[in-house]
What does this fold into?
Amino acid sequence: MSDSIKPSKVSFPCKFCQKSIHVPAGLSAITAPCPYCGKEVTSPDFSELEKLDSKPAAIDKNDDVESSVPVQGAAHKKPVILGGDGTTIKKTSDLAHAETKSNEVGVGSGNEARFVWIVLIVLLSVIIGLAAWLAYQDEGAVVEGGLQAEAEGSVTAEELRQEWITHGWKKEASQVLAGFMAAKSIDERMKYAIANDGVLDDLREFYPPGSDDRDTPIEFFAHRSGAIQDHERGIFRMQYRQPGQVELSEYFAPIGTLDKIMEIKGATLIDMAYAIDKSNVSAPIAVVAFFKGTEEGLKLDASIFIQGKFRTFRSFVDYPKLGHKKIFRVAISESIDHELRDDQQYRSYRIQDFAYPEEHVNVAVKADSKIGRALADINWRGMNREYQSRNATIELGWSKDKPARLQIERFICWEFLGVGGADGKASKQAAELTKDPQKSSE
It folds into this structure.
């Protein structure tokens, strides 16, 4: 190819996408969109370069060399087509502030993208912050919930204990009583009973083989609320009460000899009265079941249960037996209704069955005796005190001389032995008086 032949096209790289843009040789500087990336670029002034450098501009080997030379200034008259894609190229002189507009468009696009990224970053930060805050709140709620649950747990435990003291004991007491009454042997009954002194003898006497408690069904026992102090100490009570019916003895009298009537050889009038009274279906029944909390659960005071069910107190005081002794749970108070009330050496005490308050007896006690000093706390006659009655466990006995006299053989304790009282427990005053036998209860 001759050096005199000049290329018809020259190229320059796009400053954005770096691809070659082909323009006619000798074209002055123009600004137009890149045919590849679309961004506006300004071409070099090839007309000035042609004057300064006789060397031809770079020729794209892939392009055909056009033999025709464009007319000078033709580019200023009409648009020039680049690369055959129909893109219009305008000269710099035809575009007012073309460079500025291109920069503005570039900056505008960059600012828009930057704004979008900022918004996304802000949203992401808000989401992360919200998630962290929620996690912190959840953790705080868990900790607070745990502390609250722990606090509520302690309160609930106390409330449950109070609930059991007020109502919950009833179910356990009913189960213990039902087990005691359904037992077939003494050993089985003792599993539910407090092992008090004399309870085995009572069970052997009143529960011989084959006996049961069908005459006092468990479903007719009622739960009785006692003093809150007793409940706090684990003392609870159930009670069965059947009022007396019409006395059959008012309508007929037995006819025949005592041996035939009582089927007892040599029966006395006392034996007859006792047997009739014992078998009298019209007699009232009052059974008190006391329970005491132990390490093994509630236990039944079988002694007072038997005392009420079989009316052992009335049988003992109404039908004397020389030298006979027995332990009873009673209500006791000082009385003036006694033949020895004018004798200052004695004090009279009203002793009544706890289950049957209407059944009572008056007993004289020497004031300066051990028993008299133990009972001194309830003395009110001739003293600046009010009348009072207290529960106690005592041992009653009939003297061996004739006529037999009922007396208090032993003061065991205030309240009921095995339930609220302890063996040998007396008042503080009684203890002080016991140390000094010379002191008088007056």
